[in-house]
Design brief:
Helix content is about 50%, strand content about 10%. The protein has a seven-stranded mixed beta sheet, with helices on both faces. The protein has a two-stranded parallel ribbon with strand order 1-12. Helix 9 links the parallel strand 7 and strand 8. The protein is an alpha/beta fold.
Length: about 475
């Protein structure tokens, strides 16, 4: 009886052994489910910030991440934003209940009116869907997911160059074809409007066109009102679908109303559109991630269906947005005194940016740095596209400890009276090095041509 029991136990152990091996698929059960995951290269701006923080050099300058800096290189808390936040904290009726899925209605109303204006006909006719999002990036992602899933659009035209995250967001949301319309004229260092219009004229009906209405990232160059009208005309004629990314309202001119002229013009022209809105830059709420998404419809009857689909998208992503800083923004925008103070502060911030643009331009001119530099002063917003090639940007980073993107984009807010001489001299040095090298190469090529011509002439004489 004992022998039989031992045999049965041994059989069961062997059965477990073999079935376990079959379940693993091999004798090696130590393999990880994650072993084939590939490591991606570091994300540009975040990686730059990490490198800057690790750098021990006393001359280091951070011109990478898009954050407004004071003259002392510190991030800036807008006084009126802080005031509104403190008033909310001290409110005895403050609670932490969930917001509706589409967000704080007071916030979305105020934010939408900031872009479109209180007298907007589309608002009066209830042809607007407002959706609170996780900042501007979240608004972009929610929007393109909706466009891809429900409008069945898979092709998007973006400015060349544009913010790098645009293409990543579009791809993740299901867009199959991404095309660039010419924007930056490298030789003239301005907007190439003829090529831009020509590219949009080649787009297929229904294609999405991603537009930045003010303080274009990365070039700092915006179309004129006349050029915006030309762009709108092509979009209407080709029946394209415009999608606005409004990340820097107020940072172009210092006037939030003026910076939304292009968006308001499109809406007045009866063009359906989506608008992604961020309060990271213009209210300094970088880590609070406060954004708004606006859908402009042709008719109010589409409101319920569109709102319901955004409700599902958000419900299955993050359920509902955070409340506190949406309340801060709403409090600021709905109180006339707070709003006036905010606009005054933005004006002061933009004035400092303009002074730094002018100072850098003048310094480079004083140094007689090869090339033209007037475009720096003509540009607007937080960023400037210097027009330097990647190898010169790399030298500035590695040799001069000046942190900027490889495309030549700098955050002008990172400049101040303490570092602008160093930055200008460093740019001058790397540009001169390349200019000198180019001249040497030209001389070598010229010498080779002269030598070759002389050899030909000598051969002719011999013959």
């Amino acid at each position: 009886m004992l022998k039989f029991s031992s045999y049965s136990l041994l059989s069961k152990l062997n059965l477990f052994k073999y079935t376990s091996r079959d379940y693993c698929g091999s004798d090696d059960c130590e393999k990880s489910a994650f072993e084939n995951i590939k490591t991606l290269p570091p994300m540009g701006v975040s990686h730059l910030t990490n490198l800057f923080q690790e750098d021990k050099n006393d001359n280091k300058v951070n011109l990478g991440v898009g954050v407004y800096r004071t003259e002392e290189s510190q991030s800036y808390i807008l006084p009126v934003v802080k005031k509104c936040a403190l008033q909310l904290v001290e409110n005895p009726d403050l609670n932490f209940e969930y917001l509706p899925v589409l967000g704080n209605p007071e916030f979305t109303k105020a934010a939408t009116e900031l872009i479109l204006g209180k007298d907007c006909k589309a608002i009066e006719e209830k042809r607007i869907v407002g959706v609170q999002t996780i900042s501007g990036s979240g608004a972009l992602r929610i929007a393109v997911e909706f466009i891809s899933q429900h409008l069945k659009k898979r092709t998007c035209y973006m400015s060349n160059p544009t913010w790098k995250n645009h293409s990543l967001i579009l791809k993740q949301a299901g867009f199959k074809t991404l095309k660039g319309y010419p924007y930056w004229n490298a030789s003239k260092r301005n907007i190439d409007i003829p090529k831009l219009l020509a590219a949009l004229n080649e787009a297929n009906q229904g294609d999405v066109v991603l537009l930045q209405p003010s303080a274009h990232n990365p070039t700092g160059m915006d179309p004129t009102k006349r050029q915006w009208k030309q762009i709108a005309q092509v979009i209407k004629e080709r029946n394209l679908f415009p999608f606005f990314d409004v990340a820097y309202q107020g940072f172009a001119s210092g006037d939030p109303e003026r910076d939304t002229w292009a968006v308001r013009y499109f809406v007045k022209e009866g063009i359906e559109t989506l608008i992604a809105q961020s309060f990271s830059k213009n209210m300094g709420l970088y880590n609070e991630r406060v954004g708004n998404l606006i859908v402009v419809l042709k008719e109010a009857k589409y409101f319920e269906a569109v709102a319901s689909q955004f409700t599902i998208i958000i419900r299955t992503n993050y359920s509902n947005p955070p409340a506190f800083c949406s309340r801060v923004v709403a409090k600021l925008l709905t109180d006339e005194n707070h709003k006036k103070e905010w606009i005054k502060t933005i004006g002061e911030m933009v004035d400092r940016i303009k002074k730094m643009r002018k100072a850098l331009t003048n310094k480079l001119k004083e140094l007689e740095t090869p090339g033209t530099w007037d475009h720096i002063e003509k540009q607007c917003g937080m960023f400037s596209f210097l027009g330097l090639p990647p190898n010169q940007c790399h030298k500035l980073l590695k040799e001069k400890h000046i942190y900027l993107l490889n495309c030549g984009r700098i955050n002008v807010c990172g400049l101040n009276l303490n570092n602008i001489d160093y930055v200008a001299k460093s740019i001058d040095e790397v540009v001169r090095q390349e200019d000198s090298l180019r001249k040497q190469n030209d001389q070598v090529k010229c010498h080779e041509c002269v030598t070759e011509d002389k050899e030909i002439e000598d051969k002719k004489k011999i013959n």
